[in-house]
């Protein structure tokens, strides 16, 4: 029964991720901690496993189509993997309350980015230049995204995308595909450290992996038929609720 | 290069997914194999990024992109060191 409920959490995360363009981590970690009482670090470990599967599966399509800039990806990957190793190591010693507050901040940031995208002020307005520049800020953002991925079990794409498109001048679709390519290796680096500490529960992760895959498929099918852009405002509000709930649980004596 | 990299990503993600699905089914049916099926699924997913980086490094070197091949190799070493530390 629990496995089915966990799979349903995955379906929700995959569905919303596909429809709203946000990573599953911002849904999976709060759902596992708040609904199932899973310890925060174990929820992060499970989320990282799910991210490896979902970004690998979507990246396969982008790479086969030639949308991914693999050369830029491997250079940025050095920064994101290094950051993830640092972030996941720090997560092992950082107070859980601090991690939860940071997670709430990332959730609220995701909500703002989603709200801005809804109003058309998104990062797709970047110039369609083929020449990649701004490697310094790019590598810095990659390192920071990696640290957050390792700390909180999120993909980090929401931090990489603005820098890749606006600073590095990578076209939006190429940046999205390249970000996906980076995320699998970044999440793996973090997940190994969590596994080393015994914080990856395979039985917890497996049903969520299956659910996310099914949810993402369903979302891709539904996307052309529903007004996803209008729903982004509602989902941004939901993320504000999730972030607020997490802050409340810290200061209100939650786990 | 793209086809080889895409193949690694597809095989890894779908292989891991299939094992996780089998584990979920086994768990729902009360069969005892769910633990090792879930672990096998996670292991396949864990193995995918290092294999991906190895294939990418070799492909980039063949294309003459030495700097990028070196970057892929360095990322691979970082991943493998973390993976080996977790394994032993």
Largest sheet of chain B: none
> If you compute it from the alpha carbons, what radius of gyration of chain A comes out, rounded to the nearest whole angstrom?
17 Å
| Overall 3D shape of chain A | globular
Gap between N and C termini of chain A:
24 Å
Number of helices of chain B: 3
Spell the H/E element sequence of chain A. Answer: HHHHHHHHHH
Which residue ranges of chain B are poorly predicted, with pLDDT under 50 across at least 5 consecutive positions? none
Order of helices and strands of chain B: HHH
Rg from Cα of chain B: 16 Å
Q: Identify low-pLDDT runs of chain A.
A: 121-129
Q: In oligomeric terms, what are we looking at?
A: heterodimer
Number of helices of chain A: 10
Secondary structure: helix percent of chain B: over 70%
**Largest sheet descriptor of chain A:** none
- Strand-residue fraction of chain B? under 5%
How many beta strands in the DSSP annotation of chain A? Answer: 0
Beta strand count of chain B: 0
pLDDT average of chain B, as an integer? 92
Largest interface by residue count?
Answer: A-B, 43 and 49 residues
Structural class of chain B: mainly alpha
């Amino acid at each position: 029964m629990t496995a089915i409920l966990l799979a349903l959490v995955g379906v929700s995360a995959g569905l919303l991720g596909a429809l709203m363009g946000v990573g599953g981590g911002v849904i999976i970690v709060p759902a596992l901690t708040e609904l199932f009482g899973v310890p925060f670090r174990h929820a992060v470990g499970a989320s990282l496993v799910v991210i490896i599967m979902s970004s690998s599966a979507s990246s396969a399509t982008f790479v086969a189509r030639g949308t991914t800039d693999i050369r830029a990806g491997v250079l940025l990957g050095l920064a994101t993997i290094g950051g993830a190793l640092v972030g996941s190591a720090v997560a092992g010693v950082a107070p859980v309350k601090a991690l939860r507050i940071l997670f709430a901040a990332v959730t609220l940031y995701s909500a703002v980015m989603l709200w801005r995208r809804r109003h058309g002020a998104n990062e797709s307005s970047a110039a369609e230049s083929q020449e990649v520049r701004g490697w310094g800020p790019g590598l810095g953002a990659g390192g920071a995204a990696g640290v957050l991925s390792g700390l909180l079990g999120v993909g980090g794409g929401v931090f990489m995308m603005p820098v890749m498109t606006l600073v590095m001048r990578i076209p939006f679709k190429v940046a999205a595909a390249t970000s996906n390519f980076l995320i699998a290796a970044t999440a793996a680096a973090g997940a190994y450290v969590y596994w080393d500490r015994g914080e990856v529960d395979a039985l917890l992760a497996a049903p969520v992996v299956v659910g996310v895959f099914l949810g993402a498929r369903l979302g891709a099918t539904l996307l052309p038929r529903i007004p996803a852009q209008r729903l982004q405002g509602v989902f941004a509000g939901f993320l504000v609720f999730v972030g607020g709930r997490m802050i409340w649980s810290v200061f209100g004596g939650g786990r | 290069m793209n086809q080889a990299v895409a193949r690694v990503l597809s095989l890894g993600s779908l292989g891991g997914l299939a094992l996780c699905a089998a584990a979920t089914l086994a768990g729902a049916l009360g069969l005892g194999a769910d633990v090792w099926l879930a672990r096998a699924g996670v292991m396949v997913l864990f193995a995918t990024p290092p294999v991906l980086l190895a294939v990418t490094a070799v492909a980039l070197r063949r294309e003459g992109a030495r700097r990028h091949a070196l970057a892929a190799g360095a990322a691979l070493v970082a991943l493998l060191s973390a993976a080996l530390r977790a394994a032993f």
